[in-house]
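Example for tutorial group B:
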């Protein structure tokens, strides 16, 4: 018969095993991410852009046969590849993820995920972790996506909910503040042939990529990108509309950035703000949300600012509320510089 103290020890062990199970589950996810990252660095997914004979993939990998078989078994078990006879191919969903015309590619997702892992690790330190230029480029690519046909379709649907922006693009220049790699600006120039856009960003690598994308798309005559701190932007009464990528601006920069946007807009001009990353109502999504928030706030940026908070912030800079639009379940705050 168990003594009371023995039962207490068993109960404590059962609790510790529950916690251990959670840790093992998190570790399995980390291990799978490490496999994907390693294969990405070695070019596996680009090579598997088309079905490959098993022998050809083995030769490409440079691995011993037993190790190669173990890697394939992991990819197969996780729904990344499928094998038929001697042919190895990506599953349908992963084939689309690595396609050149994917909205967000596997490379961007893995690079951004690796960055957030490091940011979460840094959260144990007392001081915020400054982002490097390369870090900022990774975030810009993962946030903006690619200016391709899928993006065009999505933005055409987006503009249906923002008719004032669609109308203004045809007659007044558009300012993209914190443009990153300029997916928004470049997509709008493709949709609206009359559009003239100016994007500004403080990250040189992101601006360089935005310029290259504009040349590739053949819209460089209508899309100008400048590398500068938005707080120092000195245009006056020049733009009909502006979009501010506000989640990427740390608190100390926000008031002066809004003041610069206010000056740059014409009287009656519109500022569009997107509500992003609001706390989920579904408790099942809360763990992932708290991790993303931790990673972002570690860099000194805000996270999860609501539409109401954005309205108050813009009003403090002199803007007045035009309306709050709903597009694809996301809220967009449309503020106006008074006439």
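The residue assignment follows.
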């Amino acid at each position: 018969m168990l003594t009371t103290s023995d039962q207490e020890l068993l109960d404590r062990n059962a609790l510790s095993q529950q916690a251990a199970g959670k840790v093992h589950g998190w570790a399995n996810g980390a291990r799978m991410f490490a496999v994907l990252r390693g294969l990405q660095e070695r070019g596996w997914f680009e090579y598997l852009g088309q079905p490959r004979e098993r022998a050809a993939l083995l030769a490409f990998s440079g691995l011993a046969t037993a190790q190669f078989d173990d890697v394939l078994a992991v990819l197969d078990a996780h729904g990344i590849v499928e094998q038929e006879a001697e042919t190895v191919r990506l599953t349908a969903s992963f084939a689309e993820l690595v396609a050149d015309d994917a909205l967000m590619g596997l490379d961007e997702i893995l690079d951004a995920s690796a960055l957030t892992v490091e940011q979460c690790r840094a959260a144990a330190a007392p001081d915020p972790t400054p982002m490097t230029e390369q870090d900022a480029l990774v975030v810009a690519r993962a946030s903006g996506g690619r200016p391709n046909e899928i993006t065009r379709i999505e933005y055409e649907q987006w503009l249906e909910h923002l008719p004032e922006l669609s109308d203004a693009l045809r007659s007044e220049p558009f300012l993209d503040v914190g443009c990153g790699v300029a997916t928004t600006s470049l997509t709008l120039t493709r949709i609206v042939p009359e559009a003239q856009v100016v994007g500004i960003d403080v990250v040189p690598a992101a601006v360089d990529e935005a310029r290259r994308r504009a040349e590739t798309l053949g819209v460089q005559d209508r899309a100008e990108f400048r590398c500068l701190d938005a707080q120092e932007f000195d245009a006056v009464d020049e733009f009909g509309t502006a979009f501010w990528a506000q989640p990427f601006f740390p608190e100390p920069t926000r008031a002066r950035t809004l003041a610069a946007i206010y000056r740059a807009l014409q009287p009656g001009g519109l500022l569009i703000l997107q509500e992003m990353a609001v706390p989920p109502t579904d408790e099942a999504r809360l763990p992932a949300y708290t991790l993303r928030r931790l990673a972002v706030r570690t860099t000194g940026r805000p996270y999860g600012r609501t539409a109401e908070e954005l309205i108050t912030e813009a009003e403090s800079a002199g803007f007045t509320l035009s309306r709050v639009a709903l597009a694809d379940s996301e809220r967009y705050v449309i503020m106006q510089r008074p006439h």
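The longest strand covers residues 265-274. Compare this with the pattern of hydrophobic and polar residues in the output above.
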